[in-house]
Amino acid sequence: MNDSGASTELDPELAALSYEAAREQLADVVRRLEAGGLSLEDSLALWERGEALAKVCDRHLAGARERVDRALAAVEAEDR
Fold first, then answer.
1. CB distance 14 to 22 below 8 Å
2. CA distance readout (Å), 33 to 20, 44, 45, 77
3. pTM, to two decimals
4. pLDDT tens, position by position, for the chain (80 residues)?
5. What is the DSSP secondary structure assignment for residue 39, as one 8-state letter?
6. Quick check: 30 and 46 in contact, CB under 8 A?
7. Per the structure, how many domains does the chain have?
8. What letter would DSSP give residue 10?
9. Residue 68 belongs to what domain range?
10. DSSP readout, 26-38?
11. Residue 33 CA to chain centroid, in angstroms?
12. Is residue 3 domain-resident?
């Protein structure tokens, strides 16, 4: 999912979702898109929501990765 040219600002409602809630909603979006039967307009709107939800998940994962890196750095510093 690529956001080339798209704004990096997230809808505040989506930004407030936990990782688990965003992941579950993203999985639902994928299921609905894969099921088909939607109009082009509905499909595009759902795709855009999926893009935004993926961005929320990415931000949560990046934050978790940063916390792990800091914890590992602290442990390494104590070992020296």
1. yes
2. 20, 9, 10, 48
3. 0.79
4. 444 444 457 899 999 999 999 999 999 999 999 999 999 999 999 999 999 999 999 999 999 999 999 999 999 888 88
5. -
6. no
7. 1
8. P
9. 12-79
10. HHHHHHHHHH---
11. 17
12. no
